[in-house]
């Protein structure tokens, strides 16, 4: 309407009308404290990201050596089992203050070790492995020869609430010796045991450790002719496809 003042656009305001002047803006003490906290949190986030990237690079797997019967899990298998281990660790964090219950032993399964550390670098994991190329993991690596199942540091005896094992061979002898190692490592009270091995070992796994097969089927990056299974001594519920009742 003629004579009525029209609203100004941003470009029509003068410098002072927009609230800017020659005096620098100031913040209240509360706003400064909030800003400082925000910047510190951002710095912590960046530091965590850099640390996780460094850990992820450090735990990358070396090439498979078939002479050592090495066949790495495919990403879905590695992440699924890693998430299961971390779920068990988190359960202990919520129910028990003992650091013993948060320790994980990975027997001859470096793929799983790498994925656990990638998902959660704070989880205490010990890799027991024959291949000394994994000495790059520092104190988290322990040389392990399944032919000498009890030749391990004395502090490892009954020192792990969660033990995951993947015997390098499908022979009866190899499984029996690895089982001896598992029993050496596992806590006496309520250990959580996971075994990844060929389906042909199902009866022996039940006999030696009281394990049951899960519905989830492990796969490897290199396709293997043998059917693999994941066995546990505890009921995973809805995780890992649950216990599979084979007929």
TrEMBL record:
Top class in the EC scheme: transferase
Subcellular location: Cytoplasm
InterPro entries xrefs: DNA_methylase_N6_adenine_CS, Efm5/EEF1AKMT1, Mlase_EEF1AKMT1/ZCCHC4
Principal cellular location given in the protein's record: cytoplasm
Annotated segments matching region Disordered: 1-27
Domain of life: Eukaryota
GO MF annotation, one: protein-lysine N-methyltransferase activity
Similarity comment: Belongs to the class I-like SAM-binding methyltransferase superfamily. EFM5 family.
Listed PANTHER family: EEF1A LYSINE METHYLTRANSFERASE 1
Name under which the protein is recorded: Protein-lysine N-methyltransferase K2173_005624
